[in-house]
Design brief:
Pfam families: SusD-like_3, SusD_RagB. Belongs to the SusD family. There is one protein chain. The protein is mainly alpha-helical. Among the domains are: 209 residues, Serine Threonine Protein Phosphatase 5, Tetratricopeptide repeat (Alpha Horseshoe); 110 residues, no CATH class. Helices cover 48% and strands 5% of the residues. The chain is built from 21 helices and eight strands. The strands form four sheets. The chain has a two-stranded antiparallel sheet. A hairpin with a 4-residue loop joins strand 2 and strand 3. The chain is globular, with a radius of gyration of 23 Å.
């Protein structure tokens, strides 16, 4: 007899099947039998036709636009406020620990993110595992493979964020079967999976991406919202730079392939984040530098703006309470010391406020790269990958400091800065320092800084020292050490799944 009431924790913890987190019997949901799961003969199927598959693919794309908390807002909190780029901003008990290094498994932000990521994996799995079984003569094999490839890129993107945050994670690539009195023993492990190692997670990510390269859409210069071959190449470059056993040769390879796809630095840095004051629209979308972006237009605005500062399309909207991710004095000084006015002006802005948590209320800084409800959120851009290529040329077995310096100089030249001095260009340690600084200034408030410190083993060196240099930071609760490189697994998830093991140090 099929069990009609599945324990709520099962579905909400891992969402191995795409179902509503509710105890309501047979709830109507985006993916219910009523909406998609019955074919013309009345038999239960996941997708009844090609249109249902395309609708589900649209759902994956909509996650980039409609559910920004985990993949953008919270990732910024971790990458910027958990590093030296920003303070927490607000005094909220769930946000401050990212600044003070006191994050615990009970943190609601961490719990939200884990569950949201697992929901995304479930959506991808539903598409990848069922597209081939759709009975529809209008649905060609090539179309099926292209859709499946986009699902694999989406899944790889989600798993990549997860493995960088938590290390060992459950790598789920299939949907769980129905729970019945006869099958509960067989499907238990599907609902309560053990963690895979970090190496195994990266292996699956690499597999998804290399397979997707065969059939994914080509780069479309007019539409950077697609999971294209170029997005797969971008992720592969980042994966090979970050996984436990690095492959710097492949970082260079995929960076070069992106250049062959037509990507380059835009001439004007403000094209990436600027706003057309006359129309209150984004200054530009789908630039030559943007690889993947979530786009927002009239009637479909970007609500994250009012979490981070002002929405310049509605100047006073939601500006009565302290915002997240306040630029740090350390970052402001880094821009000033470098004389980097162009990128500073696009990254940080000052407003008068009614609060003074970190600065005087009459001159309060805010991150500025998401300044309008119609700004795109750029998930991946070419400057990031180009600087990763420079990193590979510095750190790889066949080091080429001169070529790495030329790349860094290209990025600096756009910002109106001088080339690196000869004394830096000829010294590997100095080049690593120069690279890390350049990535900090170029990619500020784009969710990169924490991962840069982790990847280059700079967390303890930078973060344990910044508290003495930055008088505006709240006191450090715990010093950073090797266990700080990973976040805690949410305790609520561990309570529901005894197979999960908490990361060391928590």
């Amino acid at each position: 007899m099929k069990l009609k009431y599945i324990y709520q924790g099962l579905a909400c913890s891992f969402l191995l099947i795409a179902a509503s987190c509710s105890l309501v019997k047979d709830p109507l949901d985006t993916y219910s039998d009523v909406t998609e799961g019955v074919n013309e003969e009345g038999a239960q199927v996941v997708f009844k036709d090609k249109a249902a598959v395309q609708s589900h693919l649209t759902t994956l794309y909509n996650q980039m636009r409609d559910r920004q908390e985990h993949w953008y807002l919270d990732l910024l909190l971790i990458a910027e406020s958990h590093s030296d780029n920003a303070y927490a901003g607000t005094t909220g008990a769930e946000v401050v620990p990212f600044e003070t290094n006191s994050i615990e498994g009970s943190n609601s932000v961490i719990n939200r993110d884990w569950n949201r990521y697992m929901e995304d994996v479930a959506r991808a799995n539903r598409l990848i595992n069922n597209v081939d079984s759709v009975v529809d003569n209008s649905f060609s094999p090539a179309e099926r493979e292209q859709i499946k490839s986009q699902g694999k890129i989406f899944r790889a993107m989600v798993l990549f964020d997860m493995v960088r945050l938590w290390g060992d994670i459950p790598v789920i690539t299939k949907e769980a079967g129905d729970i019945t009195s006869e099958t509960i023993g067989e499907v238990y492990d599907d609902y309560f999976p053990a963690q895979n190692t970090e190496e195994e997670a990266y292996k699956q990510i690499e597999k998804d991406l290399t397979e997707a390269l065969v059939s994914a859409p080509e780069n479309n210069a007019a539409n950077k919202t697609l999971f294209t071959k170029s997005v797969a190449r971008t992720l592969l470059a980042k994966v090979y730079a970050e996984k436990p056993i690095r492959d710097y040769g492949k970082v260079v390879q995929y960076a070069d392939e992106l250049a062959a796809d037509g990507f380059d630095l835009v001439a004007d840095f403000s094209d990436l984040f600027g706003m057309n004051a006359a129309t209150t629209d984004a200054k530009a979308r789908n630039t030559q530098e943007s690889i993947l972006e979530a786009q927002f237009v009239s009637g479909n605005g970007n609500w994250v703006t009012w979490m981070l500062g002002r929405d310049l399309t509605n100047y006073n909207n939601n500006f009565t309470w302290a915002k997240w991710i306040t630029p740090s004095r350390s970052l402001i000084k880094a821009f000033q010391d470098e004389g980097d006015q162009e990128r500073f002006a696009e990254s940080i802005v000052y407003y008068q406020t009614t609060w003074s948590n970190y600065y005087p209320s009459n001159n309060y800084p805010f991150m500025y790269k998401t300044r309008s409800a119609f700004n795109s959120i750029i998930k991946y851009r070419y400057a990031d990958v180009l600087l990763l290529k420079a990193e590979a040329l510095i750190m790889g077995p066949n080091a080429n400091l001169s070529a790495a310096a030329e790349i860094i100089d290209r990025v600096r030249e756009r910002a109106g800065l001088a080339k690196l001095p000869n004394a830096v260009r000829s010294n590997k340690d100095a080049m690593v320092t120069a690279l890390l600084k350049e990535r900090r200034l170029e990619l500020a408030f784009e969710g990169q800084r924490w991962f840069d410190l982790v990847r280059l083993n700079k967390v303890e060196e930078v973060m344990n020292a910044v508290y003495a240099k930055d008088t505006g930071r709240r006191p450090l609760t715990y010093p950073f050490n090797q266990t700080s490189y990973r976040l805690p697994i949410p305790q609520a998830v561990i309570d529901q799944n005894p197979k999960l093991i908490q990361n060391p140090g928590y």
